[in-house]
């Protein structure tokens, strides 16, 4: 009896069941309202610990039951998971973390420790055995803003007669006598520091597990190389099936002669105006970049009424009486358009104001803001967006958005720049010398007049004079002129938006050709080479533009939502062009996925602005962690698309024998998923190391890292499904490969835009009604349904007729 129970417990079916329970528990925790709720109900509970222990014991039994130790690379890979679990257990039971609150000049030798996050009030004071003195706390901000650039603690460690100074800042910790001190936060008055203190005896054991995991993945890839290469070399046929129509919307050109006249005559003046340097959110950039960001926010386009974004901005500034009556402000919801009484998607600025100059729709806007976010209707969300577009338009019409003037006291003001409107206010409040202030205001008035007169030469002259003022008072923060020139080119080329159509169209054509080759059993080598070459050119353009953005921004181009989605698209294109180039179906799928991600990156709720980095991201770990983990999404996206295409081949199988093609495509899917899982796992645990260097703990059940773990488990189950009856079927494998990508979508988009909380909140965006979250949940629900049903069928099949695992069944056959 005991032998039977152990046989059942140490089975893959039991591992799947435990994993499913583990997944549901984590998903439930991440969807709870607060971090405390998650710890009280899940992470801090005894039953959650028991599940992890059972998973560890089950893994030990499975490794020996299936004699995994005979394949050393595979054994090392799975052994690493046990070591990681062991390190996590030691951390959980013997480690602790606390906070050290220090004012400037203060000395302390004790930390306040929270014993259990499920009970935050349960605290104790721990004596360090030495003392820390805060000599000085320094807050550095981006020029002209309140946004922190870095915060540093200069401390002295005092241990009896011994003492030494140390500089603690984000991603640079103090390690002393088993304690690790991290820069966590600071006092609101900026006169003190809050250090996170961590004592973790399980850290190095966990790190060893991480290292073995990476070694195991790479070693097993080498071990499987002959199989993988054999599969790739044998592939001669594949593709993707779809049809896409592109609708080119003609600009909504007004018939008003004044608008037409301005459009014809303002090209040169707008071009000269666009090169003036302006300060926004702590960043100095050409006016061209500000113009593009503002017009995109107001109109959702870069061109409108026959004018480019620079012309639109100079028109709003120089001829407000004309442009306030021009249809510029985008209105997304039909009900709001009806309320405004407009035809089409654009309303004039004046449509929102009454004859008394007051906002006519203040009630609707106030009601929308006063309604909790989760209860807001689509109409209310539209009013909130319109309120922002109206306000930004107001800032342009009044000139308040153009912060181009530093004051003679700029160095003592953190090099803050001001708009002419603010300069005028400062003159009235006697905060600036009237002569200097009035000179700035009059100069800007001359600039506006030159714009009205279409005098490009005068605009250029004033621009040079403004630059002399900026250079005199803010030289240390001015960007290199070459960088400004390249930023202008980056804006004008608009490479990323163009790649949406390029990738999508190439992908569709390749998929169509792939299906044609399969059905006709004939290849088209010349067409294949031409399309492949076009794909390579698109990838090179994509890469060059990412490098250009890197140069302009001064940091790796995957630090926010927009940049990381663009990088995921790059990973999809790279994966397909490098690894799956001999399969037209796989190649087309990868390029199409890249096009879809590029399209998502340019949706209305994703901000493409180049922004400053928060202090925690100023680390070489950004290059490593984010690059690896987002690359994995590219491979997993290709695997998902190929899974969907393989399902189409299953549907066509009744008309033609496609078994060989289906098998080949399944092997490609396996390779894509395996590489994707390897990168995802390594990237996730590299993130854990970075988190430990930044926040003082390598795993905190933050929603982002938790969903990364969920996705890892999902893909691990899909890959190991080849060892379980029913789950090993080619149809089920293709279906699960497709459905599994919904967990990736939840990890990236769901956490960033739906859950929108946790330590990764610096990467979040704003969701628009969350309609898409229902699609993601439906996909994940379908995945669970397929796994559970097939698992039950597999168990019943094994009970009625035991199935012997073949030697080579663990891996796809070449």
TrEMBL record:
<keyword id="KW-0201">Cytochrome c-type biogenesis</keyword>
<feature type="transmembrane region" description="Helical">
    <location>
        <begin position="771"/>
        <end position="796"/>
    </location>
</feature>
<feature type="transmembrane region" description="Helical">
    <location>
        <begin position="564"/>
        <end position="580"/>
    </location>
</feature>
<feature type="domain" description="ResB-like">
    <location>
        <begin position="71"/>
        <end position="186"/>
    </location>
</feature>
<feature type="transmembrane region" description="Helical">
    <location>
        <begin position="731"/>
        <end position="751"/>
    </location>
</feature>
<dbReference type="InterPro" id="IPR002541">
    <property type="entry name" value="Cyt_c_assembly"/>
</dbReference>
<feature type="transmembrane region" description="Helical">
    <location>
        <begin position="495"/>
        <end position="519"/>
    </location>
</feature>
<feature type="transmembrane region" description="Helical">
    <location>
        <begin position="706"/>
        <end position="724"/>
    </location>
</feature>
<protein>
    <submittedName>
        <fullName>Cytochrome c biogenesis protein</fullName>
    </submittedName>
</protein>
<feature type="transmembrane region" description="Helical">
    <location>
        <begin position="12"/>
        <end position="32"/>
    </location>
</feature>
<feature type="transmembrane region" description="Helical">
    <location>
        <begin position="585"/>
        <end position="603"/>
    </location>
</feature>
<dbReference type="GO" id="GO:0005886">
    <property type="term" value="C:plasma membrane"/>
</dbReference>
<dbReference type="GO" id="GO:0020037">
    <property type="term" value="F:heme binding"/>
</dbReference>
<feature type="transmembrane region" description="Helical">
    <location>
        <begin position="76"/>
        <end position="95"/>
    </location>
</feature>
<keyword id="KW-0472">Membrane</keyword>
<dbReference type="Pfam" id="PF05140">
    <property type="entry name" value="ResB"/>
</dbReference>
<dbReference type="InterPro" id="IPR007816">
    <property type="entry name" value="ResB-like_domain"/>
</dbReference>
<feature type="domain" description="Cytochrome c assembly protein">
    <location>
        <begin position="558"/>
        <end position="755"/>
    </location>
</feature>
<feature type="transmembrane region" description="Helical">
    <location>
        <begin position="235"/>
        <end position="253"/>
    </location>
</feature>
<feature type="transmembrane region" description="Helical">
    <location>
        <begin position="623"/>
        <end position="652"/>
    </location>
</feature>
<dbReference type="GO" id="GO:0017004">
    <property type="term" value="P:cytochrome complex assembly"/>
</dbReference>
<feature type="transmembrane region" description="Helical">
    <location>
        <begin position="204"/>
        <end position="223"/>
    </location>
</feature>
<feature type="transmembrane region" description="Helical">
    <location>
        <begin position="531"/>
        <end position="552"/>
    </location>
</feature>
<keyword id="KW-1133">Transmembrane helix</keyword>
<keyword id="KW-0812">Transmembrane</keyword>
<dbReference type="Pfam" id="PF01578">
    <property type="entry name" value="Cytochrom_C_asm"/>
</dbReference>
<dbReference type="InterPro" id="IPR045062">
    <property type="entry name" value="Cyt_c_biogenesis_CcsA/CcmC"/>
</dbReference>
<feature type="transmembrane region" description="Helical">
    <location>
        <begin position="664"/>
        <end position="686"/>
    </location>
</feature>
<feature type="transmembrane region" description="Helical">
    <location>
        <begin position="44"/>
        <end position="64"/>
    </location>
</feature>
